Amino acid sequence: MEILILGLSHKTAPIEIREKLSFSSKELESSLGEITGLPDVREGLILSTCNRVEILAASDNPQRAILNLKKFLSESRDISIYDIEPHLYTYYSEKAIQHIFKVASSLDSMVVGEPQILGQLKEAYRYSTEYKASGSIIHRLLHKAFKVAKRVRSETLIASHAVSVGYAAVELAKKIFAELKDKRVMLIGSGEMAELAAKHLINAEINEMLITNRTFAKAREIAEEIGGTAVNFEVFPFELPGIDIIISSTSAEDYILKYDQVQKVMRLRKNKPMFFIDIAVPRDIDPEINRMANVYLYNIDDLTEVVETNLRGREKEALKAEKIIDREKERFYIWLKNQEIVPTIASLRNKFEAIRSRELEKALKYWPEPGEREKKILENLTDSIVNKIIHDPIQNLKQYGNSLDNSLFIETIRRLFNLDENRNEDK
């Protein structure tokens, strides 16, 4: 039995292709049933996220299984195979195991180290199990993948660095304030990065989020989307003494917050720390305020530098994670190859036992009225002979089971003892 993966991701396909091949949770039951009903596919799992669509399968004939899975993708998604073929990748055996471990550990993600993919993979496994598409191979592989991901997170710092402006903002805020739960935040203006930073702070369970915009309707729209309170732009300066964190991203041509203005706010705050995130270009906040005590101002370049520095840090940690994955991949592959040996050993024992039983029964026909003692002696004798004959082949099979490339040896044993043909041995 071999493990294989057919899929595409953000690395190989644009979103226009990925969205056409995606599977909703409602489709998974029927789709998994179709997959496991295909010729040469024994087990199946579908992982469908915004960044990837992958089918994981177990098969006795992986090349034919891949062809059938490509046809399934094309027909079930109603898209020509010629349109998706250039974007697809296939992995077999060790490479398939390595890939699923990397996916679980977030080494193959758009943002290396992000935690969401592990949860998505667990959900895909839950569906595969619930709809009876997985068997012993996928069960063992996925549980191993979850353990590998846990090892990567506990033994490396791959998830410890901020890797987006939003993450960076939260991480910097945590360094400035001991606790975020009692902090009030104001978002001035709009813009994707500013709103994302605001969302990350809301997820960090800040106390309150105020949103202001030159157009009040826009402020209200953002407030409803991210969860906050809209404030008229004309009155937002009066709210500043009670604000701890300000995210600003307007299209103003001049500073909307100047040195003297912030100085007055700091007096009213009795010098309690304030954190400013200026994502606007040109800048919204006078950079001179950084000279004030307990004022912390970061612009878009500062945050981008934090992100890039931390991404480089993740890349270093990713190298450590790769080594963990390589070791675990080898161990799992040895286990998988050993699964091929177990039925061969069973077949060998069964064949010799069948020969022994038939020959013993034949011999007893020529023995007039053998007693129970004589029967027992013959039984033990023939059983001992068989065990001694198959001892070396079985021991060698087990020994070669620790080799990553034992296929040739197993095939030789099966052919040598004719284990794959049912024929009459009674001659």
Word description of this protein:
With 427 residues, the protein is α/β, with parallel strands linked by helices. It is built from 15 helices and ten strands. It has helices at 15-21, 28-36, 62-76, 81-84, 93-104, 116-130, 136-155, 165-176, 192-203, 216-226, 236-239, 259-268, 300-365, 372-400, 407-416, and strands at 2-9, 43-48, 52-59, 89-92, 184-189, 208-213, 229-232, 245-249, 274-278, 295-299. Helix 8 (165-176) packs across helix 13 and helix 13 packs parallel to helix 15 (407-416). The chain is elongated and about 120 Å long. The protein starts with a strand and ends in an 11-residue tail after the last helix. The model is unreliable at 423-427 (pLDDT under 50).
How do you describe this structure in short?
It contains 15 helices and ten strands.
The strand count comes to 10
Oligomer: single chain
Tell me about the largest β-sheet.
6 strands, parallel
Low-confidence stretches: 423-427
Determine the strand fraction and express it as a percent band. Answer: 5-15%
Distance between the termini: 34 Å
- Shape annotation: elongated
Order of helices and strands: EHHEEHHEHHHHEHEHEHEHEEHHH
**Whole-number radius of gyration?**
33 Å
The computed structural class is alpha/beta
Strand order of the largest sheet: 7-6-5-8-9-10
What is the typical, i.e. mean, pLDDT?
88
The helix count comes to 15
Helix content class: 55-70%
